[in-house]
Amino acid sequence: MNLQWYPGHMAKTRRLIEENLRLIDVVVEILDARIPFSGRNPCFDDIVKSKPRLLVMNKADLADPDRTQQWIKWYGEQGLKVHPVSCATGAGIAGVVPAAKSLVSQKTEKDAQKGLSRSLKLMMVGIPNVGKSSLINRISKKASAKTGDRPGVTKGKQWIKAAGGAELLDTPGILPPKFEDQTVAERLAYTGAIKDEIINIELLSYSLLEYLRDNYAAELCTRYKLDGVAELAGYEILEMIAKKRGFVISGGEVDTERAANVVMDELRGAKIGRITLEIPS
Ligand SMILES: Nc1nc2c(ncn2[C@@H]2O[C@H](COP(=O)(O)OP(=O)(O)OP(=O)(O)O)[C@@H](O)[C@H]2O)c(=O)[nH]1
Ligand SMILES: [Mg+2]
Q1: Domain range holding 86?
Q2: Which CATH number fits the domain that encloses residue 66?
Q3: Which of 123, 180, 194, 258 could form a disulfide with 169 if both were Cys (CB 3.0 to 4.6 A apart)?
Q4: What is the pTM of this model?
């Protein structure tokens, strides 16, 4: 499947981030713990440049805990510290603002010596649907930012004040202008970072099922009551799932499209298990 797109509003968001950067102390880049690599938009490196940056890995509650540790170690080896959090359970949230503060502590001390005291200004950036607005709501303990279970919920910038003198800037999600690597596009699609309307869910489910076959076979078999999947291609696994669930259309044919939608929903809801969709290389 070939996914290429770059809607105009993403170019607009890029400008919004660039224009507001001078007001910001620390950029908080949010990653999805299920795709800690593919869920990083390389364009943030160009936009953010030398501004202090904090990496936060959200949705840790949905990801495989062992893999999350592997990814934290992998980023550590690149000299980058990543904070795992979950906006669903609240785990790790209390550490985000202190970690951002510690990145600019020298500057804050100098300002204090000059008698200047300002609030800490953080800008949340990341791919669509990763939980930028949810993180702001968790930190500020208010439901000020609109959130939703689909990409493209936040349309413009919004400043929100949090306790302890921090101000948080919410931004819309942005994807890379193009995908050099289609597996990156597929992984973004599995997690819901790309609008489902432009995706062929059935085709997408084939590659997902093959990944699950190779990495989470026990979870896959348990969820869909399958006897074994080792020898099967993605479309064959999908057909078996459709049969097991009794998804039949007129004429006795199995409804694989319906099965693909169910698999995608159950993956996103962690009903198949806590699954991470890529391994550090
Ligand atoms: N399970 C789980 N769901 C989460 C977590 N954080 C956010 N969500 C859900 O993910 C969806 C997207 O969250 P948002 O906060 O709207 O994401 P966003 O990055 O602001 O999205 P856009 O504004 O569309 O770019 C919502 O349904 C949230 O409830 C988390 O840590 N765990
Ligand atoms: Mg948002």
Answers
A1: 8-170
A2: 3.40.50.300
A3: 123
A4: 0.94
